[in-house]
Amino acid sequence: MEWLSIEEWNAVALSLRVSLWATFAALPLGLLTAYALARWEFPGRQILNGLVHLPLILPPVVTGYLLLLTFGIRGPVGSLLHEMGITLAFRWTGAALAAAIMGFPLMVRAMRLSIEAVDPKLEQAAATLGASRFWVFVTITLPLILPGILAGSILAFAKAMGEFGATITFVSNIPGQTQTLPSAIYAFLQVPGGESSALRLVIISVIVAMGALVLSEILARRMAKRVGQG
Amino acid sequence: MEWLSIEEWNAVALSLRVSLWATFAALPLGLLTAYALARWEFPGRQILNGLVHLPLILPPVVTGYLLLLTFGIRGPVGSLLHEMGITLAFRWTGAALAAAIMGFPLMVRAMRLSIEAVDPKLEQAAATLGASRFWVFVTITLPLILPGILAGSILAFAKAMGEFGATITFVSNIPGQTQTLPSAIYAFLQVPGGESSALRLVIISVIVAMGALVLSEILARRMAKRVGQG
Amino acid sequence: EQITVFAAASLKTALDEVSAVFKETTDHDVTLSYAGSAALARQISFGAPADVFLSANSTWMTYLEDQGAIVADSRFDLLGNQLVLISHAPSPAQDWTDLDLSQRLGDGFLAMGLVQSVPAGIYGKEALETLGQWQSVATQVAQTDNVRAALALVALGEAPLGIVYATDAQADERVHVVAPFPEDTHQPIKYPAAQISETQAATDFLTFLKSAEASALFQAHGFEVLGE
Amino acid sequence: MSLSVAITHRLGDTDFDLSFDAPDGLTVLFGRSGSGKTTVTNAVAGLVTPDSGRIAVQDRVLFDSALRVNLPVHKRRLGYVFQEARLFPNMSVAQNLTYGSRFAPPNPQAPKRDMIIEMLGLGALLTRAPGDLSGGEKQRVAIGRALLAGPELLLADEPLAALDEPRKAEILPYFETLRDELKLPILYVSHSAVEVARLATTVVAMENGKVARTGTATDVLSDPSFTPTGVRAAGAILEATVAAHHTDGLTELDAAGIPLFLPKLDKPTGARVRLRIAAQDVILSRSRPEGLSALNVLPGTIEEIRAGGGPGAILSLSTPAGRVLARITQRSVSALDLSVGTTCHAVVKTVSVAPADIGGA
Amino acid sequence: MSLSVAITHRLGDTDFDLSFDAPDGLTVLFGRSGSGKTTVTNAVAGLVTPDSGRIAVQDRVLFDSALRVNLPVHKRRLGYVFQEARLFPNMSVAQNLTYGSRFAPPNPQAPKRDMIIEMLGLGALLTRAPGDLSGGEKQRVAIGRALLAGPELLLADEPLAALDEPRKAEILPYFETLRDELKLPILYVSHSAVEVARLATTVVAMENGKVARTGTATDVLSDPSFTPTGVRAAGAILEATVAAHHTDGLTELDAAGIPLFLPKLDKPTGARVRLRIAAQDVILSRSRPEGLSALNVLPGTIEEIRAGGGPGAILSLSTPAGRVLARITQRSVSALDLSVGTTCHAVVKTVSVAPADIGGA
Ligand SMILES: Nc1ncnc2c1ncn2[C@@H]1O[C@H](COP(=O)(O)OP(=O)(O)OP(=O)(O)O)[C@@H](O)[C@H]1O
Ligand SMILES: Nc1ncnc2c1ncn2[C@@H]1O[C@H](COP(=O)(O)OP(=O)(O)OP(=O)(O)O)[C@@H](O)[C@H]1O
Ligand code: MOO
Ligand SMILES: [Mg+2]
Ligand SMILES: [Mg+2]
């Protein structure tokens, strides 16, 4: 398309990649955390719950700064990962990490709500039929909470598409590596007359995210139909 | 306390006020929207759904900019409201509006999930006993979705406590009027040596939000015990 | 009288002190709102209740001036600043004639503001172009949304080198100035001020900014005071 | 015409097309699992909107597709005992019980809370949460909740299936009271021949979304050719008058001149009662039997002999008290040389007319 | 010892303290609503962990608080038909049915899918979602699901309560097969005397969390003093051998030399069967009756007469075939001049020993 420069296209592609990775990578941990918070009693439950919500409570810049301190090349975790050949700082992977962390509370809350809505009587029934905890989860709980997982994922994805503060603070803005759509939009808004360019990118971002949203709705409907009322 | 200046205390108080107002003011509309999305079929359902998610998808700066365009003193809605004696721009009410809008998607999603989990068979039973739609909602649906309402509110509150980008763009950073905790933290981070002051504010913000979180968990537990499994 | 001053966030420390003195010496009360210059300028153009605007660059002040949003002829350049190359590792000061930025950088990153929108980034890129060093490092520039973030990257050692204002470099002992940029390598760095409302207090405040007392405070924080 | 239903509806693979008019009283929907009983009940309640048709109770039209009338559920003034209890999990048992009363217009006829709690044995459960009840307890609460709504139409979908015999025996008379004294129209789903015989004014037998047969309980149950839920359901219904109460605890009835003895009935002398005599509880004898413990003997003439596929046969006997059915073996039919026109005696043990099978007529 | 339970547990206001040992076969838990049947079943399943005690099936210890054994639910190798169907809403009927088989170790003894689908009449429903089933259909799927898990212990909580008579009659023999041929230990909750008599090897009668009485079905049901779920439950159980199949569709049994006639039984000549004769279905006669349609007459001596509070009495008759109970009126007792030691004849109609009351012994 002519009305987007190559650099802008790159930002679109990168934002999609970052958001998708952030969402999918956060999924397993998000699900585990949601399950633990919904179903398990353990010391430190409240602390875990608080920790999960932290990125929501803190201004994004602060989150970004904390990420930099922790996962930067000199940070305690970052340096370890670096030795293992994984670099997050100034890479798109770091942007994905920031997006994942910012979306994490949204993802976990949605999943947790749907786990809490599952009738334990169905899980018991599965156990009497020989399903171990693991299989009960895979065959009963998981299918029943799919709408919640979907809702959580779409929230996280949307958040990832819009995340700016934490990302630019943590991985800054390197075209092709970490210049996501929101960074590009922000840059345009910083100069007088940049509004129309920003608008173009905003429209793209909205189209992409809305597409994902509508898709998720259709999926959720289909699931709901299948799951119905037992 | 000595280690916080009056201005900082003001920021804490203001953030609380803004967040609480944002949460409570958004509640009725959030509930209505969630209910409509969960239960009603109407043209434009997908569009409403998209609109609700918009603040999540857009970089906060853009949301703030759009708010400024719409609700500013010169904006189409803002000027109307202004004539009616309601000014949002550069007032704490505007900050509350920004926070409410940013937290709206989180609130609606959580409520919607819990509405979708209510067994319509119970609502039918209530209807056969003479309860009109309204009373069914008040006596059956509402109590059953209280955990979801609580979850949605706490998400929105936490988000409001951390909201920065849209707020500072829309209503600026005026101490006592619109300088919320995140804005104050931002300002500190913009100057050399401001980190320690910022840290103090971050700690306060975390304490407040965590307190709200723990409280909501306790409430939710109590509700869950009452509601149990029918 | 009560006035509201919209000021670029990077002026916070210095301006807090200056306005404290102003409040003491006059019976005016000052409210300061710090944010990015772009946000403030837009808000003013949308009718924000600001009496005075201090911008971190000329473009946004010009934007307002073109809209007729400032009091005619009240605009003046208050402060100047200098752009410097800083490093995380202590290193002796160097001169640009024998400094190969690309080589010093190795595979590290050069932290600076957004090169198309954040003033320090714009100036920095311009300077490097003048010095003929932009091309060799262009792909290694880590751009941040404000200059303080660039400073933080160098201070934490995440980026070995960065380009910031002298005022920032001076305030953080974790960074070392490698080389100041010659003034003729970029547009002059100016912090313009202007009156938005035609109140007496606003006029008084602008006048006070130019006073010797204020100048001393600005200079103490490393700013260059631009006389009229 | 108390309850009148005429609807067509499609649900999954089942095509519903049925109409029945039932007079005042209790109408039993009868039929095999999946025949559509719950669906019809839901249509009357307004929970299922039929594709077309008309539903009216007394002179109130609940639904009429032609007139575009479709009264909302909450305005139909129902009590509905669902097949699954559907208690409100956010309320205590006591709150569940009184839920309907706040919406009902004041009604002095409505059953009293304490009476219902007593009858259903819920006294000890009032503060419980529904999740802490046993299956039968839930169902009792559901019954109480529907009754206490003071309905003008009662729907009950197998309300007693989860209950034990003594509890059933306690509740059944109450449904009779509702039917006879409060004149409440009742639509009642049941698989149980005992309940049908005892309660039904009208029986609507369903099969695969259609009405297989309607009629009075007497008609449908005494028809030897119609035994949709098994041979045990066949039986006749007789009407009789209470003649005397004897000191040995027996009540003597007068069925068109024939004395019948039953365990003490709680009805005044002169009251009309309805008895069910299951076909399988009747023994036939050519001569008037002597020296038997059975006290009730009805002389009659054989009207019809229907041999089934198996070794049994159902004989229809015309007696002064009305038609009596007897199910005996074909071997006995030939051994006793029975044929249409033969006179013989139907022997019924006193106690085989069990308490649950007696209802006010 | 097939199933051995000894537990104490507190649930709400109910204190459970019970122990029973049941031999191989089917153990019926019997008792009023709220007496604790579901709770005990849940304890055996592992869904409720008793405060203390021991539960073992065959030689497998499922729970032992002293030894700190508490086998997880999924390792107990159960099939559990719950009081409410509990179908998995995310699966079709077919998927629900085969759910357990993927976890079960291969077992050639396990019932075959097609056979179960056929027996339960589920063929047309396989692709349905559980939400689209009627109440009875759900329960049938739940039964199928439990059976197809190939369990080593079957728990069934009122599995047939929601079903119509013909369907019950189809399913009951299958539980007999499980009990007799596959030797599956079964714990079965029921309110129905018919089901108890037909299926129970052992009856455990519960009352308020305690065992009120245990014993063989014969013992418990023939005890005239014990009728926890109503007088209709009283009855005797006789054992007999299949003597001949007659061409008129009757099967002749030999009960210790006395011939008894029944509708055709699907058992080979020589097979042992168990009959339930309900006390209320027996007529007594001083002389050997003639010209009656009832084919079965058992001579005997009166052993005991128990007059209840009402007009009835239960007489216990010792016959060559075993003890037979008769429930008749006290008026008949004096009219026939019956007392302990009197010889008389018990008359039982052929068909009153209904199909559902006959089981393999
Ligand atoms: N979660 C609970 N909390 C408190 N009491 C309970 C709970 N669950 C059951 N009970 C009580 O324990 C007793 C036994 O319940 P249980 O479900 O075992 O009865 P049941 O014999 O199966 O009855 P039904 O035939 O009605 O199903 C009842 O009195 C019941 O009210
Ligand atoms: N939502 C649905 N979609 C498709 N078919 C359905 C649906 N609900 C019920 N059916 C089918 O419609 C028929 C009638 O169902 P209904 O529930 O009225 O039966 P019922 O007579 O009440 O049976 P039961 O005695 O088992 O409760 C059944 O064959 C059932 O499988
Ligand atoms: O809310 Mo933020 O300001 O960019 O993510
Ligand atoms: Mg039904
Ligand atoms: Mg139970």
Automatic annotation (TrEMBL), chains A, B:
InterPro entries, per database record: MetI-like (IPR000515), MetI-like_sf (IPR035906), ModB_ABC (IPR011867)
Protein keywords: Cell inner membrane, Cell membrane, Membrane, Molybdenum, Transmembrane, Transmembrane helix, Transport
GO MF terms held by the record: molybdate ion transmembrane transporter activity
Pfam (any one): BPD_transp_1
Regions that span the bilayer: 20-38, 50-69, 89-108, 134-158, 198-220
Role this protein plays: Part of the binding-protein-dependent transport system for molybdenum; probably responsible for the translocation of the substrate across the membrane.
PANTHER family per the UniProt record, alphabetical: MOLYBDENUM TRANSPORT SYSTEM PERMEASE PROTEIN MODB
Protein name: Molybdenum transport system permease
Gene name as annotated: modB
From TrEMBL, chains D, E:
Gene encoding the protein: fbpC_1
InterPro entries the record matches: AAA+_ATPase (IPR003593), ABC_transporter-like_ATP-bd (IPR003439), ABC_transporter-like_CS (IPR017871), Mo/tungstate-bd_C_term_dom (IPR008995), ModC_ABC_ATP-bd (IPR011868), Molybdenum_import_ModC (IPR050334), Mop_domain (IPR004606), P-loop_NTPase (IPR027417)
Residue ranges of domain ABC transporter in the record: 1-233
CC annotations in GO: membrane
EC numbers for this chain: 3.6.3.30
Keyword annotations: ATP-binding, Cell inner membrane, Cell membrane, Hydrolase, Membrane, Molybdenum, Nucleotide-binding, Translocase, Transport
Gene3D superfamilies linked to this entry: 2.40.50.100, P-loop containing nucleotide triphosphate hydrolases
Gene Ontology molecular functions: ABC-type transporter activity; ATP binding; ATP hydrolysis activity; molybdate ion transmembrane transporter activity
Protein name, as recorded: Fe(3+) ions import ATP-binding protein FbpC
Entry keyword annotation includes Lyase: no
Domain Mop: 291-357
Ranges that cross the membrane: none
Pfam families in the record: ABC_tran, TOBE
Keyword Lipid biosynthesis in annotation: no
Domain of life: Bacteria
